[in-house]
Design brief:
The protein has helices at about 1-35, 40-50, 50-70, 75, 145-170, 175-200, 265-270, 415-420, and strands at about 80-90, 90-105, 110, 120-125, 130, 135-140, 205, 210-215, 225, 230-235, 240-245, 245-250, 255-260, 280-285, 290-300, 310-315, 330-345, 350, 355-360, 365-380, 380-385, 390-395, 405-410. The protein is an alpha+beta fold. Helix 5 packs antiparallel against helix 6 (about 175-200). The longest helix is centred in the N-terminal third of the chain and has 36 residues, at about 1-35. It has eight helices and 23 strands. Helix content is about 35%, strand content about 35%. The strands form five sheets. It has a six-stranded antiparallel barrel. Strands 3-12-8-5 form a four-stranded antiparallel beta sheet, with no helix packed on it. Strands 7-6-4-9 form a four-stranded antiparallel beta sheet, with no helix packed on it. It folds into five domains: about 15-70; about 80-95 and about 340-420, conserved putative lor/sdh protein from methanococcus maripaludis s2 fold; about 115-140 and about 210-250, no CATH class; about 145-205, Helix Hairpins, CATH 1.10.287; about 250-335, Elongation Factor Tu (Ef-tu), domain 3 (Beta Barrel). Strand 20 (about 365-380) and strand 21 form a beta hairpin. The protein is elongated.
Amino acid sequence: MAGTCRPRAMKFIDQLKQKTLQLGCKVFTQALQIIKKINLKKIVSWLLSHKKQVVIVIALIYGANYAYNYFFPEASKKMPPQVVTTKLVEKKSIPIIIEATGNIVAANIVDIRPQTTNLVSKIHIKEGQEVKAGDLLFTLDDRADKANLDKARALADDAARQYKRASELLEKKFLSQAAVDTSLANMKSAEASAKAAEVTLSFDHIRSPIRGRAGVINVFPGSLVQAGTNVATSTSATATTTTGAMVTITQLDPINVQFTVSEKEIPLLLGERDANDQLTVSVDVTGSKTPIEGKVYVVDNQVDPAIGAVRVKAQLENKQSLMIPGQFVRVRLKAKTLQDALVVPTQAIVTNTKGDHLYVVEKENKVSLKPVKVIYQYQGETVITGIDETAKIVVEGKQNLRPNSSIKEVPAPTEKAATK
């Protein structure tokens, strides 16, 4: 099959070459015939016989061209300068801000639960009251525990007397050393029992372990409370209610805010920084005219793979009690400060398929399009690299600009208002 196709292909190529050569020869022959028909002598003789008319036509063309250039100069045919506002590139230190949403969490929170099963005798606090560490919150019925303590102390005193008597008899050799040792053991056991009874009695006087604010009180005088996960269970005709804590004490000042930061921004949190460049936060809170400032005190040691973020906690002052646990807030985290950064307005950046650019004002009010690299953007300001720190850039009016366009600078609206 291949042997039959090859001769056919060679034959077709030879035919194509012959037709091409024939066509070329034909075109060349026709061109020579046209050239031969041109009589240069007749053309020259006609021009010499009509030289006055030819001179008049040339003069008319020249005069028309001169008049057109005089009444319509080249400058008026060009595009008018583009009106723009410009600004010098600023060199300053700018903080890197990370915005996030978070929740207020308590610095310390304690559920007050009983350590013994007993009746509530007296409640010493009110709901929402500020308490200090060690303040008495509840008193349980302590009559039985007081009696047990008195009994244990009496037994301890008796055991102490028995040991003293046994020691005296040992000196007189009326009692063996073994009997004295037994008496000593009985005394120590009785003293331990007295201490245990004292501890049990202390369970009837429940005190606050931290400073904070008391929440809703879930028990009343006469309520039976039980040691364990559930303080009390009450059953009605419609439902059964289980109480988890007698009251909850929450520390509100200082208070914490917890939020998450994307894993790509972790180097900003954990990277090297100056001694004065600390991680700080600013929190917007309803009721406060100014944001509340705080400091980050912990960045979690692992990333949550479900959301690709790491948890961060910061501590805030809450003297006016404007924040409570569970509250939703907006957080701005100052990660670090870029020193001597080149800053331009964000609206001056021109983005196209080749990247980010700036229109830079050159000599004779011409502009050039310079490529730049955007490092950071926040609240209308952009940190860049790639241009000189003394450059003047176009901020507004760049829509119709092209490289090498002429411009006319006008003050920005804010500058006009300031001059007025």
